[in-house]
Structure formats: C-alpha cells, structure tokens
Write a structure and sequence with these properties.
single chain; 223 residues; alpha+beta; NADH Oxidase; 12% strand
Length: 223
C-alpha cells in the first residue's frame, strides 16, 4: 500500500522551480545554429505525452517538425514570424478531427490493457464517458478538444523551462495553411497552437526585460 510519505518525492526545490519559471519568456528570436540534443528533446516529448486531459482522453496529436525546408514554409504561413523557421523543434499541437465511439473504444481498450481491468469495470469506465462522446455536438467537441490542447501546451512550456530550453506559444498562424502543408486532415487532426522550441538568440532583447505579472493581491482570491 502506498503511504503519504511515498507520495511525497519532490526533486526540485521551490526556489529552483520559480527561478526557471521566471527565466522563461515567449522567445521572439531563436538561435538557428543551436539545436536541442536528442536526450533533452526526449524528456520534453515525454512531458508532453504526460499532459493532463479531461477524462484522460488525450484528444490530440503532436506534430514535430525539424525539416528546415518545411519549417521555413510554415514560418511564411505564420505571417512570416521567424520562430517556426529558426527554432530547433517546432511542435504543432493538434486536436483530433473526430471524437466518436470508435475513438472511445480505442481509449477504453488501451486503458483496460494497461490497468488489467475486468470486463465489468471496463464497461463502467466506458459508460462514464459515452454520454459526453455520443451526446455532444461535433462542433462543441472540437472546441473542447482545442481547450485540451492548451493544457498540453502548458505542460510543454513548463517542462521546457525546467530543462533550460526556450519556447514560444504561438496562436498567430494560418491554421488552414498549416493543415494543408502538413497534410493534417490525412493524419486525422487539425492544428490548434504552436510551440517552437530551441535556444534564444543573444540578439533577442525581450529576454532581458523584467517579467511583468500583476501582483498576487490583484489576481489571487483567497476564500
């Protein structure tokens, strides 16, 4: 049986955590010569996969672009912003195009295999989510899935900061163009938000600016 003590395994001090979160910023200019090494990127990709999602349904796909020619084309489709072209890894966070009973069955079956669920527990687990999947209009599920993508984005931004990797969340891009360039409908998904990853350029003066956040007295409500 797990004890309360076994659940407590902090490996990073609060001071170090806040130091890295204060260090990060939305990088405007990456150093195109610096690349993320394979081991570091593997950690970030694993952190992305560990993102929380409603029901645990993971209604997303993560398209990782490192091909320089493709990144350059995508940069143009991001209104010629330089980050997609100059970053090391461009992560395009996408929502699943279809969330239907077949998708739910796949998730339930995979969960049952991972957790050794008996058939009765498996049926109950599916029933908990079936009403939402089958009873929610497709357009509403698209919005819901897109919101889940932002949870994944938050995980990735935090993980990158803790690994000393720069990142820039981006909504300013032509989603239709990204979908077309990356053939996303054929892959069963649609682009939602971007997260270029890499290392800041010494010429990016935004990295030297003080971080601006409203004080806790304005943003935290204690009851």
């Amino acid at each position: 049986m797990k004890t309360a003590e076994s659940h407590s395994h902090a490996v990073l001090s609060g001071e170090d955590l806040l130091k890295q979160l204060n260090w990060r910023y939305a990088t405007k200019k990456f150093d195109p010569a610096r690349k993320i090494d394979d081991a570091t990127y593997a950690v970030l990709e694993s952190a992305l996969r560990l993102s929380a999602s409603s029901y645990g349904l993971q209604p997303w796909k993560f398209v990782v672009v490192t091909d320089p020619a493709v990144k350059k084309e995508l940069s143009v489709a991001a209104y010629s912003q330089p980050q997609p072209a100059d970053c090391s890894h461009l992560v395009v966070i996408c929502r699943q195009a279809v969330l239907d009973e077949a998708y739910l069955d796949h998730y339930v079956q995979y969960t049952a295999e991972q957790r050794s669920l008996p058939e009765d527990k498996k049926a109950a687990f599916k029933g908990m989510m079936a009403g939402f999947i089958n009873g929610t209009p497709a357009a509403d599920k698209d919005v819901w899935a897109a919101k889940q993508c932002y949870i994944a984005l938050g995980f990735l931004l935090s993980a990158a900061a803790l690994q000393g990797v720069d990142a820039c969340p981006m909504e300013g891009f032509d989603k239709a163009a990204f979908d077309r360039i990356l053939h996303l409908p054929d892959k069963g998904c649609h682009s939602v938000v971007l997260c270029p990853l890499g290392y800041r350029s010494g010429e990016d003066h935004y990295g030297d600016l003080p971080k601006v956040r409203f004080p806790a007295s304005e943003t935290i409500i204690r009851i």
